[in-house]
Amino acid sequence: MNNVLTGVVAGLALGVIDVLLMLPLSFPDKKAALLGAFINRFAIGFVVVNINPPMPFWVKGILVGLILSLPDAIITKTYIPILATGIIGGLLVSFLSR
User: Which terminal residue of the chain has fewer beta carbons within 10 Å of its beta carbon, N or C?
Assistant: First the structure.
């Protein structure tokens, strides 16, 4: 499988997992929250697979997960769950795609 297709599959998987984790929670605009989370996690999965910086796979996964999750964490002031799922997701995708 080429990197673009692998990135799409990884992004879809990561996005679906995060949406499923968020379904029981309540938000003022639940549809927007779920869509935003899905797009963010999709981006993490896609980017991790499609970049090749000169660093270990685990550093790449952590950095991409952190950098792409940080804006959402700052806006919502919900740092731990957003950063944790982003970093873990980035690390997992990076490990599986190395």
Answer: N
How far apart CA 47 and CA 77 sit, in angstroms, is: 24
Output the six-digit token pair for 46: 């896609």
Q: pLDDT grade, residue 16 (50/70/90)?
A: very high
Q: Where are the domains of the chain?
A: 3-96
60-69: long-range contacts, CB 8 A cutoff, minimum separation 24: 60/90, 60/94, 61/87, 61/90, 61/91, 61/92, 61/93, 61/94, 61/95, 62/87, 62/90, 62/91, 63/90, 64/90, 64/94, 65/89, 65/90, 65/91, 66/90, 68/40, 68/43, 68/44, 69/40, 69/44
Q: Which residue from 72, 14, 1, 19 is spatially nearest to 48, judged by alpha carbons?
A: 14
